[in-house]
Structures are given as C-alpha cells and as structure tokens.
Amino acid sequence: MAVKSARISKPRSGLFHTPGALTVEYDVAPENAKEFIKAIRRYGRVRRRDGASRWGIFHDRETPDRYVETFIVSSWAEHLRQHERMTLADRELEERRQRYVRGNPRIRHLVSAT
User: From the centroid of its chain, how far is CA 106?
Assistant: First the structure.
C-alpha cells in the first residue's frame, strides 16, 4: 500500500519561520494496536532525527480506536524540509505504520499564535 503524503501549502507571508505543532490522528483496530504502537515508535525516531521535538503518541480513551501523534517543529520551513529528507527506509517505516491504520490519517498543521 502506497502512503500518500499530505499536501502542504506554503504559509502566508510572515509565518515561514513561525514554530508549529502537528497532530496526526490514526484509526487503529484493537487487534492491530500492539503492532501499530511498535511501528509508530520506530517512525517517531525518524521524526526526531528530522528535527521534530516533543514527539509523542497518545491513545484517545473516549474513542478507543483513535491514536494521536503529536510533535513540534521549530518552523514551517523546517517542517517542509522534513518532507524533503524522506529516505527509502523512512518510506518503508511509514508503510509499515500504515498497515495497521484504517483509512488515511487526519493531519493538522498548527502555527504558534504568538
């Protein structure tokens, strides 16, 4: 299964160097949860290697099939560079993670309000 990268638009003027936070919501069947956690933790190393900080994976207790990945980037420009750094090995880890996910992840790009 090929994993599609989220379309990322260039931020409006003045936000290119603004810190950002990203959330990625995954829908994971209970029988796949253990393997998903293993795969997402491996992928978290890729995120951190490429400049993400405060990376984490959280389980939504109110919606048991939902897992939410979060991380901080120093700027929108840094996040765009993360996409450019993707290696073949990174893509394989991304595909492994996606094997345990139903549908496409929901991605939110947030910029600092300050």
Answer: 9
